[in-house]
Write a structure and sequence with these properties.
Elements (H helix, E strand, L loop, with lengths): L1 H18 L2 E6 L7 E9 L10 E4 L17 E7 L5 E2 L1 E5 L2 E4 L6 E9 L1 E4 L2 E5 L2 E4 L7 E2 L7 E5 L7 E4 L2 E2 L6 E4 L2 H5 L3 E4 L2 E7 L2 E8 L6 H19 L6 E9 L5 E3 L3 E7 L6 H16 L26 H18 L5 H16 L9 H6 L12 H4 L3 H19 L6 H15 L6 H12 L4 H8 L7 H6 L3 E5 L7 E2 L2 E6 L2 E7 L4 H5 L6 E5 L2 E2 L3 H9 L6 E8 L2 E8 L1 E2 L5 E5 L5 H11 L2
Parallel strand pairs: 1-13, 19-20, 20-22
Antiparallel strand pairs: 1-2, 2-8, 3-7, 3-12, 4-5, 4-8, 6-7, 9-10, 10-11, 11-17, 13-16, 14-17, 15-16, 18-19, 21-22, 23-32, 24-31, 25-26, 27-28, 27-29, 29-30
Helix pairs in contact: 3-4, 4-5, 5-9, 9-16, 10-11
Length: 599
């Protein structure tokens, strides 16, 4: 009898779970106060003989932004009702978890409110002009039903007339959308309001651009230029896996950033910067970056990045590929589409090299470790971060560049990093339908290159040795020079800013004069050598009037106590790199350059 009951127990539980469809309704009764009203309906999956309550959870982070953000902190007033309209007991059991004391198989309605007042591409924001819903901070799920289908019905506020999202609409149901599971729901941001919408088709895919916030953008120019980027990036992978793609663009007075999704992206822009050539190309670079992610990260991904655990950190040492290579390709796409000249592109590469090599943390933290530490360091920088960390975006981009040049050089222009990315996409996303390991990426890259990449991995990825840029650029007949070479400029080694009328030290650079002689972050600089200093400009002029080796007396206030610290000025070690062509480049080098820069 116990066996029969157990089988009945398991069969009933399985059948209930299989038929469960979780439905959400979202409305806005107080948008002026930044609130979202959420109603969630589900059929209880509790086994008939169980006395345990159902458990509902809210994610603590959003994919693509590697920080636990504790979205449940914004949830208020959660209540639940049974199928007969009876109020059910609910209990919060953890930071993002609620117990609902429902009955097995009954229809349950859960209602709660979410405070949404954080403007970013990864968090929800609501006011009377529009609503941006970042799903991981809005929608909960019943434990163990993450693979169940969901629907979302949007009830726009008053005169809001438009909804932009990558979610599929439900036929015959206005403002209702569907997702096959919560991974799709959580990966589909929603814009509701009166956004300006225009479209273009590229690579056989219909693209919607939803512009919120106004601005001086030119629709025709964006349609043309964004299509070029889409087409060029599709060439890398040989196919575009979407039938439809949505760009949600938030235009504010001063804004930036982006976050990738499976068939959409959210971009931040400054509304009046579209007519500025530099800023416009910067926006196109952002488009190129986030769109490249629809392959690299959203489909071709490190093994740890899917299926996701939405309740905790998901660690990977490969963000230097996932984000860094994407950062490499964004400007490269602008070169391939001729938005950047070869000379401009090389200037950007030189600037990237300068930025990474001038950061002391580049000699402290390997880029693979920076990837793993994203959860605790990258999104939580402090005054010492530049001394102890390196960006997996910036360093990863340069790793992408040297690996690309190594492959092009080794194969005499026949192969490139493109071939690695396409082969990985075909093997792990399409064929094996899983993420890759660090070792698997290395094996594929070496297969394409036809040679070992041990040095790149040991010295530059898992180590902190200086990258030998001249060797890699030399494959393309390019020369790297330091325009600061030979200059003997005095250097204090701090960053400072005026805060509440006080000139305050905000950063002390590792190993430089101020570091060695004892200036600290948060010290107020009062004067130097008997002269009052009140601004960053005055400080710079004072230091530039000295010579390397001079001793200066810096009067500071530290925790309200005045003291004088003697500093011996050292030479500015920071490099300013420039890349130029080698007039004596061989035909082989010219072939590599032509392949790399698409000349």
């Amino acid at each position: 009898m116990k066996c029969i009951l157990f089988i009945l127990f398991m069969t009933t539980a399985a059948s209930i779970q299989a038929q469960t469809n979780i439905a959400f309704e979202v409305s806005f009764t107080e948008p002026q106060a930044h609130y979202v009203d959420v109603e969630m309906k589900y059929k209880s999956t509790r086994p008939i003989l169980s006395y345990q309550p159902s458990t509902i959870k809210m994610p603590v982070w959003t994919p693509g932004s590697y920080l636990v953000r504790e979205f449940s902190k914004n949830v208020e007033g959660l209540q639940a009702w049974g199928g007969k309209g009876n109020l059910l007991k609910t209990e919060k059991t953890a930071k993002n978890t609620w117990a609902v004391y429902d009955n097995p198989g009954e229809q349950v309605t859960v209602k709660y409110r979410v405070y949404a007042n954080e403007i970013s591409v990864r968090t929800s924001f609501v006011d009377v002009s529009h609503a941006f819903l970042s799903p991981t901070g809005i929608f909960m799920y019943v434990d163990n039903t993450i693979n169940n289908p969901t629907t979302v019905t949007i009830k726009p506020f008053k005169n809001w007339t438009k909804i932009s999202t990558g979610l599929e609409p439900v036929s015959g149901k206005p403002n209702m959308f569907q997702a096959v599971d919560f991974d799709i729901l959580f990966d589909s941001p929603i814009e509701v309001g009166n956004q300006d919408i225009f479209e273009f088709t590229a690579a056989g895919v219909k693209h919607e651009v939803a512009m919120y916030g106004g601005g001086n953008y030119n629709k025709e120019a964006l349609q043309r230029d964004m299509a070029k980027i889409v087409t060029e990036e599709t060439i890398v992978f040989g196919e575009n896996p979407n039938k439809r793609y949505v760009f949600i663009v938030h235009n504010f007075q001063s804004y930036g950033g982006g976050l990738e999704h499976l068939n959409s992206t959210v971009l931040g822009a400054s509304r009046m910067n579209y007519t500025n050539e530099k800023d416009y190309k910067g926006f196109l670079g952002l488009v190129a970056h986030e769109y490249f992610h629809l392959w690299n990260v959203k489909r071709l991904r490190p093994k740890a990045l899917g299926p996701f655990d939405y309740t905790a950190e998901n660690y990977t040492p490969n963000l230097w590929i996932a984000e860094g290579f994407t950062a490499y390709y964004d400007n490269l796409m602008l070169r391939r589409t001729s938005f950047y000249s070869p000379e401009k592109y090389l200037d950007l590469i030189a600037g990237d090299i300068s930025a990474v090599e001038n950061q002391p943390g580049n000699r402290v933290q390997p880029v693979s470790e920076a990837s793993l530490d994203a959860w605790i360091k990258y999104y939580r920088p402090n005054e010492n971060s530049k001394n102890s960390t390196i960006s997996y975006y910036d360093k990863g981009s340069l790793i992408g560049m040297i690996m690309d040049l190594e492959i092009i050089g080794a194969t005499k222009g026949q192969k490139s990093l493109d071939d690695v990315m396409k082969a990985m996409y075909e093997e792990y996303y399409k064929k094996q339908k899983r993420g890759y390991t660090d070792a698997e990426f290395k094996v594929m890259a070496e297969k394409v290159a036809g040679k070992s990449l041990d040095k790149i991995y040991a010295d530059y990825i898992n180590g902190t040795n200086p990258i030998n840029y001249p060797d890699y650029l030399g494959y393309a007949g390019l020369l790297l020079s330091n325009e600061n070479q030979g200059k003997n400029t005095p250097y204090l080694g701090i960053a400072s800013a005026v805060k509440e009328g006080q000139l305050t030290i905000t950063h002390v650079s590792r190993g430089k004069a101020a570091w060695k002689d004892g200036l600290n972050v948060n010290d107020e600089i009062v004067g130097i050598d008997g002269y009052r200093i009140t601004s960053v400009d005055e400080l710079d002029k004072m230091i530039s009037s000295k010579k390397v080796g001079d001793k200066i007396n810096v009067l500071i206030s530290r925790d309200g106590i005045l003291q004088t610290i003697e500093i011996t000025l050292t030479a500015n070690p920071n490099a300013k790199y420039k890349i130029t062509v080698d007039d004596k480049a061989s035909p082989e080098q010219l072939a590599v350059r032509k392949k790399w820069l698409k000349l």
